[in-house]
Amino acid sequence: MNRSDDVTIAIVSYNSFQAISSCLSELIDSRSFPVIIIDNASSDDTAERLEQRFPDSTLVKSPCNLGYGRAANLAMASCTTKYLFLINPDLKATTAEVKQLLLTFKQQNEKVALLAPAVEEKAHTKQGLVEQDWVIGAAMMFNMDAMKPVGGFDDKIFLFSEETDLCMRIQKAGLKILLDTDVYIEHLYRQSSTPNPKTEALKDWHQAWSFCYFHHKHHSDHGKYNPYRRAIRYFIKYVLATDQAKKNRYKYRLKGTLSFLLQRPAILHSGSPYTP
Description:
276 residues, alpha/beta, Spore Coat Polysaccharide Biosynthesis Protein SpsA, Chain A
């Protein structure tokens, strides 16, 4: 099969061998596009298994867990094609769907920096291209030439709000974001890595920190987005929660919010994320 020189597939992995092999084997095995996999210092044998299973892909092994946005930036820096399709490991993307998106993107002018498929059934309205303020970060195809004045994801964010921040910066640069409602790619939410209590605590802390950081950065940290109000809200929910899983969630979201208020960074000097 002829290999496309127009788009590179980029996948960010953390303990994601099972998800990638289940969801993306057809796409990768087709050898229709160059594939870059950024392994975020998986704690299992994901990197080795990916290397063996997909030998034609470029596997970049990060020495530490960079999070989604910073790992995606590595893929962007390595990309030599005009377009880059950034996808989650648990996205059931096929070769045909990528080709359809690419064909649509090629028909747009250079003001379109980002094109995304529907990854939720409710967005699969079959109304063609719809201009958006932001799109879900599970599947984002970028025009790398148009993205030059914007840059990549904010490297102060480990997880969460990174795609919202990038979409806002795209718009501030006078560029467009389109959702292709004709293309639906199923997203198996929360299956990109194996869940465990430590991972959930990490996610809850960073979800809260990143939320506060995003609204502070874009001067929208007032009203219900005020970090002090959110800290009080999480404290009350933590005290009142009877379910242990919810109690843990509110505890770590409270800690993430308080850490932001105390001006503690999400990324340590070593490059690793803060771990609660």
